[in-house]
Design goal:
about 240 residues, alpha/beta, five-stranded mixed beta sheet, 9 helices, about 30% helix, about 25% strand, elongated
């Protein structure tokens, strides 16, 4: 857990990765280049959740993030797709719902034969043996809620909050369905994913960093600092 007095001068907030380990690798390099071109005394990278499902390499995304590939401190938030995966591990009857949201791609990334699952049998033992250990290492708090000073982590609503400057508070949301459409003044800037858009959205009250990486080949990162917000983009070109 980050120190209670930790207040980064710059934040890199990366949108929904959804199994695109290749784009994550490129974003890691983009952030490193940005730090070289625009040095910061201290920086934090935040991934807003939805690492698994839909894209081809959910396992690769999780394994990379578990090692913190970034040249900064790092906080990983849990999105609704990670919650779906955990539900499946507890109760295989959720398989039909999960696979409609991209769960089969996650199983494929772990080398699992999905045939028995498609025929209504129990969850694959190979996956059930491997994935819980990875999940417990990646999210040490099963309910994804923890507090340290001004930092508050929760799921699925506001997942990380801390003082930015003055009276402004920046809040990161792992799964922000209501926040993504709201136009109200939250008294803070909400940085979220979950709702894919063609371009990153920058509004007076929120920043949406989900650009649908699994279908658009574009992974977005918002760079937040006192002078404003800018974006980094990782593509497959």
């Amino acid at each position: 857990m980050i120190s209670a007095v930790y207040e980064p001068r710059r934040i890199y907030a990366i949108g929904d990765t959804h199994g695109r380990a290749d784009l994550l690798d490129r974003m890691v390099a983009e952030i490193a280049r940005d730090l070289s071109a625009h040095p910061a005394d201290d920086a934090l990278t935040v991934t807003v959740g939805d690492y698994v499902d839909r894209g081809p390499d959910s396992r690769g995304v999780i394994e990379r993030l578990m090692r913190n590939p970034f040249a900064t401190r790092f906080v990983a938030l849990k999105g609704n797709h990670e919650s779906l995966l955990e539900s499946f591990l507890r109760d295989s009857s959720t398989a039909d719902y999960w696979r409609r949201l991209g769960g089969l791609e996650t199983l494929h990334s772990y080398g699992v034969d999905v045939g028995p699952l498609m025929r209504g049998r129990r969850r694959p033992k190979r996956f059930a043996r491997r994935c819980p250990q990875a999940m417990s290492s990646f999210w040490p708090h099963s309910n994804c809620r923890c507090r340290s000073g001004d930092i508050f982590c929760a799921m699925p609503g506001c997942a990380l909050a801390f003082h930015w400057s003055g009276n402004t508070r920046t809040t990161f949301c792992g799964s922000a369905t209501s926040s993504s459409t709201a136009r109200v003044d939250f008294g803070k800037i909400v940085v979220h994913g979950h709702t894919p858009t063609e371009e990153p959205e920058l509004r007076s009250n929120r920043v949406n960093v989900d650009t649908g990486a699994f279908m658009t080949d574009r992974l977005t990162c918002a760079v937040l600092e006192e002078k404003g917000v800018r974006f980094l983009m990782a593509t497959d070109q």
